[in-house]
Amino acid sequence: MSKISKFFKGGGSAASKSRGGPSPQEALARLRETEEMLSKKQEYLETRIERELAIARQHGTKNKRAALQALKRKKRYEKQLNQIDGTLSTIEFQREALENSHTNTEVLKNMGYAAQAMKKVHENMDLNKIDDLMQDITEQQDVAQEISDAISSRAAFGDEFDEDELMAELEELEQEELNKGMRDVRLPSVPSTSLPSRPGKIPACHFTFLMIKPCLSTRKRAEDEDEMKRLAAWAS
Fold first, then answer.
1. CATH class assigned to 23-124
2. How many CB atoms lie within 10 A of CB 109?
3. What angle do CA 32, 37, 42 make, to 5 degrees?
4. Where is the composition biased (Low complexity) (predicted)?
5. What is the rounded CA–CA span in Å between residue 99 and residue 105?
6. DSSP annotation string for 80-138
7. pLDDT tens digit string along 65-122?
8. How big is the CA angle at 132 (ends 128 and 138), to the nearest 5 degrees?
């Protein structure tokens, strides 16, 4: 078992020692207070170093003993300043590590809550029922697709009749109408009076009849031609 597992499960000596100890927030507050105190100490030491340097310059060769004492104090202050720099670096590292640990703890805690929530959601789910449901959905989608294809396909009404037979029947009807029209056409009648075999004197009565007959024949011929034109127009 890893150290992290022991820590979060409350096992091991580290966990027992941490019971009743300060919280991460309290420890971070203490570290920040210490950093602030050491920073003020740094400012004080830097001021004393500058003062001892001024004293050393002031005495110089006139009073070597006082000048040397001032330099010795400056050296001690510088040593303390270096120690404080190292201490601040250590505290800063510890504070950052504690902040990261606290962040990781909160992250893991929230992840644990999320895992429990997911477990609770999945408690009432049966994988077999889910498979059956997905199969039902797939089948219904197939049925819907078949219905859609059937509705969108071209209707085949009237395709059971043979088109060639229908055309043949139509031609027969047209031929019957054409024959009927031809039967209704009236041909000009043949004159009943025989013409003379050779030229001779035509009697007066025959002359009158022959003058009227061509007029009647011409009018009859015109009527027959009109009838033929109407018949031809209908047939076309």
1. mainly alpha
2. 11
3. 120
4. 1-24
5. 10
6. HHHHHHHHHHHHHHHHHHHHHHHHHHHHHHHHHHHHHHHHHHHTT--HHHHHHHHHHHH
7. 888 998 999 999 999 999 999 999 999 999 999 889 888 888 999 999 898 888 888 8
8. 145
